[in-house]
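Quick one before lunch.
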Amino acid sequence: MTERSGSPSNSHAAVSLRGISKIFDDVTAVDNVDLDIADGEFFALLGPSGCGKTTTLRMIAGLEIPSAGSLQIFGEEVGPLPPNKRPVNTVFQNYALFPHMSVEDNVAFGLRMRKVDKAETARRVAEAISLVRMGGMEARRPAQLSGGQQQRVALARALVNRPKVLLLDEPLAALDLKLRQEMQFELKQLQREVGITFVFVTHDQEEALALSDRIGVMDGGRLLQVGTPEEMYDAPVDRFVADFIGRSNFLHGTLENSTTVCLSNGDRINVPVVDSDVIAVGDAVQVSLRPERVMVCDPHEVPEGHARLQGRVATVTFLGNSIVYHVQLDWMTVVVETDHRPDLRRRAVDDDVALWWRDDAIAVVRP
Ligand code: ATP
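Model of the adenosine-5'-triphosphate complex:
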């Protein structure tokens, strides 16, 4: 089963959190988080509004002080260091550009404050502006730029300081869908070009899947699971994660042994090996079954050796490239999504059908 937390493994992590919590008055915004983010990684903190992802990012940035725990950046304890003494820069959702300054002056600002010499400043500013493809627009002010262009300037302004870690707080949220998709692609290219660690906060699961090397899903201040996009989709360990990343059916049951679940209708099914550190034998569990991983066939057609569910088609919805069936069992409804292809027989409402799946197409999750 997949890695469950962001726990230890890499002694040279770019960012390392151990037992990090943040309590505001009576709200525990971040609750005992352990996480290692590797050097050069594009890491997304994903979760719904209020889950604690921004507070986690702000603690890495030095904009909030942890209530408990240890926070290291490249092995150095940064707890007491103010933001400008950390090797990080933050790009905010609202860009936070200086409206009265040109693009060039906005990008140069940090270097001038640090009194970097003029020739070096000019060279690095030109390099950063070219990196974000804003050459030719150096003299414009933010009001004369589109949202996407302003976001590029914000990126250049952060990158010109050569941070070891770039923190991004929902940087694309203010852009419309098409531009957001273009910028996603550019952001990923940019990260490859500069090769530094990006830590990215988002509530958008598609954005997290598209951009990240690894994702950490948070809820209620806790880090529920960390893994690659494929691991998070294929092997969620928690119902919240399975539901937040993609869609799923959940069959209730009990873990009978590490590879068998007894479903609430009495059927026993084979499941991928369950890690006993994550879920113990005898625990109530749910089996996550992705709609596109369920096969529909006539009741007598289920291949030998596979678990099956018998049901009747309740609704058929044509979506162009796929067809969605709601199949009514006598104990629950299962949503199934099949490709719309001429070689696949289309089912009709009231057809008696059987549903089956490959043993490795499901995941056992905590309820
Ligand atoms: P969003 O996507 O809406 O920004 P988030 O997942 O980033 O949400 P946080 O901003 O980290 O969540 O907030 C986590 C919790 O901590 C929320 O309940 C929030 O109201 C609370 N919180 C955040 N900052 C403060 C603060 N300065 N004072 C009091 N409570 C706060």
